[in-house]
Specification:
Structural class: mainly alpha
Distance between the termini: 53 Å
Low-confidence stretches: none
Radius of gyration: 15 Å
Largest sheet: none
Order of helices and strands: HHH
Shape: globular
Number of helices: 3
Strand content: under 5%
Length: 62
């Protein structure tokens, strides 16, 4: 049985583990950049953009 996993899910899980166990270093920087790159290319990019715009609008109102 073949298992296919998205690069966004893979890099997100690795980055979450690195942050959780405080194993941050140059390797985690590469994982973070790759996670951001693949996340920006996914369908979630527009949703994240809308969320960040809503948060920045809320913060600017305070």
């Amino acid at each position: 049985m073949a298992l296919s996993i998205s690069a966004v899910v893979l890099f997100g899980a690795v980055l979450a583990l690195l942050v959780r166990f405080r194993a941050l270093g140059p390797g985690s920087a590469v994982v973070g950049v790759l996670f951001g790159y693949y996340l920006a290319r996914s369908d979630a990019a527009s949703t994240i953009d809308q969320l960040m715009n809503a948060i920045s609008g809320t913060v600017s109102n305070f």
